[in-house]
Design brief:
There is one protein chain. The protein is mainly alpha-helical. The chain has one domain. It has 7 helices and 6 strands. Helix 1 (26-48) packs antiparallel against helix 4 (122-147) and helix 4 (122-147) packs antiparallel against helix 5 (181-199). It is globular and about 60 Å long.
């Protein structure tokens, strides 16, 4: 028997709602809202950099498609054991299972290709998109809440997340409440968003540093959250694969950020953030 708790965060009883005969998966809805929010923010930032905001909407769909494909491939590859007995489940994205590293890799490849095709500056385009990406992540994590997945280990903290028995790992069936890692990561992403918007206003800011800083900050937090999670995962040397990837990308992000800081100043380094442009909501 577990002791009675004074407080906890309840989990939704279901992650699917119906509009007549049509199922509405909240996981997919949060992803869609995140994409819309990211595109809106990127359009405003691209405009402030002196470009046509419509250019973002024209390429956004390809970046999203590449990101989703990369995210799903990364998840299926690193958690292949979940699909060996039912390969068709690998296509059921609405049930959860998108690896952020695959999404970033797929999206980054699309950005480079599209920037070359349309003669955009790839670093400037990456800077325009990065804050929107982390905002989308903050929103998308709530899909994990509705799916009752990717939570942390058991805890009795007042903000613990109550998980239904059917969703608990076998070794934790006797526990009812767990660390709400989805909430921690969502709040961390919102903090990163604020830091990115603040940092690029500094006179020393260089083109590409917003994206590099996003990589460094997100991976720092993700390493912590990854080691709190209770879901099964492949490990190397006692660490989950995603934790190792976080370490690697953190080092790359920091090194890239510092390298860019040593580059000569360029008119594009200001990322269009100056007194001559209309202020964007949230930039105060």
């Amino acid at each position: 028997m577990t002791p009675a708790l004074l407080a906890f965060i309840p989990s939704p009883s279901r992650g699917v709602f119906y509009l007549g005969p049509l199922p509405l998966h909240v996981y997919g809805l949060t992803l869609a809202i995140g994409v819309v929010a990211a595109t809106y923010l990127a359009e405003h930032r691209w405009k402030r950099m002196g470009h046509d905001p419509k250019e973002i909407s024209q390429i956004a769909v390809w970046i999203v498609i590449a990101g989703v494909i990369g995210a799903r491939l990364y998840h299926v590859i690193t958690d292949y054991q979940l699909y060996t007995h039912d390969p068709v489940k690998a296509l059921q994205i609405w049930s959860g299972g998108l690896g952020i590293w695959g999404a970033v890799a797929g999206g980054a490849i699309a950005v480079v290709i599209l920037a070359r095709k349309h003669n955009y500056d790839a670093l400037q385009l990456s800077d325009a998109i990065a804050p929107g990406v982390v905002l989308a992540q903050a929103i998308g994590r709530w899909g994990n809440y509705f799916n009752q997945e990717l939570f942390g280990r058991p805890t009795s903290l007042p903000w613990a997340l109550k998980i239904d028995l059917a969703h608990r790992p076998d070794q934790y069936k006797a526990f009812a409440t767990f660390q709400p890692t989805f909430l921690y990561e969502s709040l961390w992403c919102l903090l990163i968003l604020g830091v990115l918007l603040w940092a690029e206003r500094l006179p020393s800011h260089r083109r590409g540093q917003t994206f590099a800083l996003y990589i460094a900050l997100y991976t720092a937090g993700r390493f912590v959250f990854e080691n709190m999670r209770s879901d099964p995962a492949h490990t190397i040397g006692g660490l989950r694969i995603n934790a190792w990837v976080s370490i690697l990308l953190f080092v790359i992000g920091v090194a890239w950020f510092l390298w860019l800081a040593r580059q000569p100043a360029d008119p594009k380094d200001a990322s269009g953030v100056d007194a001559g442009h209309e202020a964007m909501p949230g930039d105060a």
